[in-house]
Fold this sequence. Notes:
Number of helices: 5
Largest sheet: none
Number of domains: 1
Shape: extended
Distance between the termini: 67 Å
Oligomer: single chain
Amino acid sequence: MGFRTSPYWYTAYFFEQLAKRGVPGMLYIHPWEFDDAHPRLPLGRFMRFLHGFNRSAVARNAGGLLRHFQFGTLSDALDAVVERPRAQLELPPPASERATEAVA
């Protein structure tokens, strides 16, 4: 079931179960899901129904998740469950040091 086609309690239940295990959940909502002016596509009845079903609840349900659960970046979520090597970046010296080197 997708986020738009599921009741709020269903999605919240799975986020709660993941949180109990210390596993981050992930949710992607396409921007068109929030767009009430999204153009209607020329589809058959059933597909048109699925395409528009429960779109009015997306913003409300997303707001509920944002109020009840902690969200972060994908990088934060990966760090919580996967040991990843950290690249050491070699940064150029600050501009003040480069200016001193150019004068010398």
